[in-house]
Amino acid sequence: MKWLMWFYPGLKVKRWMALSFLGLILTGTSISLFFDGEFFGYLENSLRQLSRAYDHGAMAGLGAFIFAIGLFLHIYGFMAMVRSIFEVLAPERDARLVEVLYRRRSLERGPKIVVIGGGTGLSVLLRGLKEFTSNLTAIVTVSDDGGSSGRLRDELGMVAPGDIRNCLVALADTESDMDRVLNYRFAQGDGLIGHNLGNLLLAGAAQTAGGFEKAVDLMSRILAVRGRVLPSTLHNVTLCAERLDGLHLRGETAITADGQGVRRVYLDPPDCAPLPQTLQAIQEADAIILGPGSLFTSVIPNLLVGGIVQALRKTAAPKIYVCNVMTQPGETDGFTASRHVAAIHRHCGGNLVDSIIVNTEPASKALLRKYEEKGQKPVVIDSKYLEKQGCKVVRARLINKENFVRHDPARLAQAIMAVVIGERERQNRVGLVDRLLYRRKMARSPQHHPWQNRVEG
Could you list the residue ranges that cross the membrane (predicted)? Predict the structure, then answer.
């Protein structure tokens, strides 16, 4: 029964219903006083005469019945008034008002999570996490120099908008509609061929709003995103890499295409600074998530921005790395899970990751053969070496095996939330209402199975 949702905890509606009901009682009392008690006095005398004809039990039942009718009419009128306003403000909404209100309120009570990364992996993760909390901050790499993003960087001197656009779409309240529009790529038109509509909108907004940061804020409001998206830096940086043989490469596209192995990556210029909002979000976070995504071109570049690693070391929030399911040709060939973590620590100047989430569900042989043809293999989980690095290992069945071996948004989000909520419970920072809301979300998820996740370490 949908109307019962009005009485769920955390909606912040019951208190106003009670206050309104109290106001009605006080209003009636004041009117009675104004008429020297005759307003309610006449009704009281009539009820006394009626009570002489019936016993006390019948009168008590009649009183309860009248009270129930009055309370029902009050609540129904209150809800009808709010619903009428809602239909005018958002007539296109298909969901019931109480469902929208419940979802928004429950998301507002969710933990503060900072996600650091880029590429497809980050947008996949955000699609899952936005169903559990709207207190999300995505810190996104801006070093892409290929395709539409690269052309806009060269012509306008702006930071790469592609990964920012993907995250905005992933967090949008109406994701399916925005996905088709903002990811549209022009196939014809002089100067438009190859450009992405979302990238062009961000570029135009940056010109009119007075900067890329303001353009992202503007697009976030237009799309009604659940959370916020921040570029890791506003400097027009170039990602560089040192190969295993000592040769240096310049540009993300060159690094990805080279395929000769990466020893380390670095930014040019190296003294780029993060946004103040980025450092504040890290300081206030309940959890920090690194990845998933390309290790050397999506995850680590964010950590090279000045001040971010220092902020991560200061925060008490757990740092959780989501390990890739498959290796990446030319970058992480032969990498085990511990080598992924070791690469992060090497670029950060010491241990940083507290927990690592790894996939335990095997992919089909047919899918694996397709990936092996491209030089990709499943990442081996070497728990012993991970424990030596001080990492707790969270094992979960995470992949979507329909056409690709990649993380499933719902499963990955559930694994992360289990770790985050578990850590908050150990610190006695989860209230009764928050615990009830979290369990309800997990129970309603079609992917949820209690036996899926297990922590080692």
Answer: 58-79
Is 227 strand, coil or helix?
coil
- Per-residue pLDDT averaged across 255-261, rounded? 91
- Residues 6 or more apart whose Cβ sits within 8 Å of residue 227: 126, 130, 133, 134, 135, 136, 137, 138, 171
Judgement on whether residues 275 and 335 belong to the same structural domain of the protein: yes
Q: Residue 250: how many CB atoms within 10 A of its CB?
A: 13
| Encoded tokens for 80 | 């009808």
Task: Let me know if residue 191 belongs to a domain.
Answer: no
CA triplet 195, 278, 171: central angle to 5 degrees? 50
Query: 170 with 119: CB under 8 angstroms?
Result: no
Rounded Cα–Cα distance for residues 264 and 295 (Å): 11
Per residue in 117-173, pLDDT (tens digit) is 999 999 999 999 998 999 999 999 999 999 999 999 989 989 999 999 999 999 988
| CATH number for the domain harbouring residue 302 | 3.40.50.10680
**Six-digit token string for 420:** 């985050």
Supply 232's token pair.
């890791």
**What are the φ and ψ backbone dihedral angles of 456, each rounded to 5 degrees?**
-120, 160
Check: CB of residue 204 under 8 Å from CB of residue 218: no
**Cβ neighbourhood burial of 231 (10 Å; 0-12, 13-18, 19+):** buried
Name the more confident of 10 and 46. Answer: 46
- Structural domain range at position 244: 109-141+232-456
- Give the confidence band of 102 by pLDDT, cuts at 50, 70, 90: low
Q: Are 231 and 124 in contact (CB under 8 A)?
A: no
Same domain (yes/no): 65, 136: no
Domain count, the chain: 2
Which of 50, 78, 101 represents a domain boundary (last residue)? 101
Fill in the amino acid letter for 455: V
pLDDT digits (tens, 9 = 90+) for 349-400: 999 999 999 999 998 888 999 999 999 999 999 999 999 999 999 999 999 8
350 found inside a domain: yes
Beta strand 136-140 with 228-231: parallel, antiparallel or unpaired? parallel
The pLDDT tens digits for 404-436 are: 888 999 999 999 999 998 888 877 777 766 666
The backbone torsions φ and ψ at residue 441, rounded to the nearest 5 degrees and listed phi first, read -65, -40
Beta strands 113-117; 136-140: pairing state: parallel
Selection from 128, 187, 129, 139 nearest residue 163 by Cα: 139
Q: Write out the two tokens for 189.
A: 């038109």
- Looking at the domain assignment, is residue 220 inside a domain? no
Please check the confidence at residue 443 and state whether its pLDDT lies above 80: no
Residue 284 CA to its chain's centroid (Å): 15
